[in-house]
Amino acid sequence: MRRKVPRMIKRLFGLYLPLAAFLFFALFPFYWMLISSFRANPELYNLQANRLWIKNPTLEQFRELFAKTAVLQWLWNSFFVSFLTSMISMSFGIMAGYALARLRFPGAQAFGLATFITYLVPTTLIFIPLASVVQYLGLSNSIWSLVVTYPTFLIPFCTWMLIAYFKSIPKDMEECAMIDGCSRIGAMVRIVLPMAIPGVIFSAMFSFTLSWNEFVYALTFISSTTHKTMSVAVPTELIRGDAYFWGELMAASLLGSVPVAVLYSFFMEYFVSGLTAGALKG
Amino acid sequence: MTTIARAQRLPASPWARRFVKPEALTGYCLISPAVFLMLVLLAYPFVLAVYISLTDRILGEPGKVIWFRNFLKLLQDSLFRQTVWNSFVYTLSTVCLKMLLGIILALLLNQEMRYRNLVRGALLLPWIVPTSLSVLTWLWMFDSLFSVVNYILLGLGLISKKIPWLGDPFWAMVSVIIVNTWRGLPFFAVSFLAGLMTIPKELYEAAETDGARAPRRFWHITLPLLQPVIAVVVLFSTIWTFADFQIVYILTHGGPVNATQIFATMAYDVALVAGRIGEGSAISLFLFPALLVVIILMLRYLRRE
């Protein structure tokens, strides 16, 4: 006869303990980033002290960071590029997604397939020739090189995301609008778009995050300090030779992580539902 | 008003009206910006990559066509063979780990609990935060002298002497695998969770009344029904991991003695650091067969659905 395991014990070993382990694994690096950036150097490099707690919290690392580096410029560059590219990609994605979800035209299927394939193409496959294209366009070492190249991987993403959203909206409503004299584009802007707002917000936000985090193109196309974005500037500008200024590095990493974390915490519901829709639609 | 008004709004040009239906014309207009951008900045660079890989181009000089000599040279190069091996080890082990842990985590998150959304949000953080910055934190956590990972493991008595995380070929590979798993796990878990939530509860109830215990229910209901999501997520992750760059670039820079060198980092080093652009292009083109396999599998899979 099987003895019934008490519910509490079952929950403890079947849920709380394993979940706590996963949470620890996921969050410890952020905790470490946080406490490393609020410590002064003597405490940071003291092997005798309790290393998992801060004794004297200080803003010294941030002060140093702001005084010695162009961190505000990098943050601004990241923001500028991410904002612009997510707006561009979302607009183009809305247009292409609507066309693929609603209109019939020869080549639509081929285009749909092409966007899907481009979504899979890793940036590391083409970054070398893209560098010469960027140079040919006269954009090397300028943040505009990122503004034109990021949409290549953002548009396919937005398009696929939005196709799913547009398809979930009943066709009848825009057909009614069109019978009442609205044009195709008018129906799209006035009827379909407002109903697809969650999808639009999700793809814009996710594009913002993807641009903010992008590394390979930014590393390849941009060489001067003042034009770098946060994700590239911190590992390349703050590590000088063999000298690692860990306090400043962690402070800068924190500054670069907080904006996307905040953005995401505000819109988490959209994020999770959007991600879910995306994962299921594939 | 209705039909006439719509008929009047046909495209102005008679040529366009004769050959293209208005709906098609709208369609073409709507996709043209995306098509243009993808042709100029994706299709063209790809063709260019193939061309450059067939030349001996070095930084600042156009070079001449040498056909497949870059590829032949690479295949004989022991460093490149090591890179191929490393890439496979890195991809296989991280994708397996992420899949396994992802299923476990999704099953945990699928249970009723308080603060479920908060927990889910917290677990997603590694995936949201800029990878280059979080990997810097890992670099600091694996520091040879100040490693907090060693500090914790020593403190708990799990190890008796410090692990040389990034200084030893074996442990360096372990480190990049850990970090990649850490970063990619949330995507797996959340996607699997989405899949789990679509499985009807009645199936489990029916199985339970038939006397099937939890492992059998998992094996015969959960896994088969989750399989489409698993397939798609694994395919996505395989190509992304295979072509990964930042984790290795920041954590080990391919070292020590190329023990963690993978395709993208080697391509970067050869093309942009050493300046041998032709050869570097050839290295990154080795990613293409992998991409092709993933695309074909994915398309076959999606067509069957």
Radius of gyration of chain B from the CA trace?
A: 26 Å
Secondary-structure arrangement, i.e. CATH architecture of chain B? Orthogonal Bundle
Query: What is the number of beta strands of chain A?
Result: 2
- Helix content range of the residues of chain A, please? over 70%
C-alpha termini separation of chain B: 44 Å
Provide the helix percentage of chain B: over 70%
General form of chain B: globular
Number of helices, where a helix is a run of at least 4 consecutive DSSP H or I residues of chain A:
15
Percent range for β-strand residues of chain B: under 5%
* Elements of chain B, N to C (H/E): HHHHHHHHHHHHHHH
What's the total helix number of chain B?
Answer: 15
- Given helix and strand content, the structural type of chain A is mainly alpha
Tally the structural domains of chain B: 1
Provide an overview of this structure.
The complex is a heterodimer of chains A (282) and B (305). Helix content of chain A is 76%, strand content 1%. In chain A, helix 4 (71-102) packs across helix 11 and helix 13 (230-237) packs antiparallel against helix 14 (246-266). Chain A folds into two domains: 7-62, no CATH class; 69-281, MetI-like fold (Orthogonal Bundle). By secondary structure, chain A is mainly α. Chain B is mostly helical. Chain B has a single domain (76-304), classed as MetI-like fold. Helix content of chain B is 75%, strand content 0%. Chain B is built from 15 helices and no strands. Chain B has helices at 2-8, 14-19, 22-53, 69-76, 78-109, 116-128, 131-141, 148-155, 169-197, 201-209, 214-242, 246-251, 263-273, 277-285, 287-304. In chain B, helix 5 packs parallel to helix 9, helix 5 (78-109) packs antiparallel against helix 11 and helix 9 (169-197) crosses helix 11. Chain B is globular and about 75 Å long. Chain B starts with a helix and ends with a helix. Residues 1-8 of chain B have low confidence and may be disordered. At the A-B interface, helix 1, helix 4, helix 5, helix 6 and helix 8 of A face helix 1, helix 3, helix 5, helix 6 and helix 7 of B.
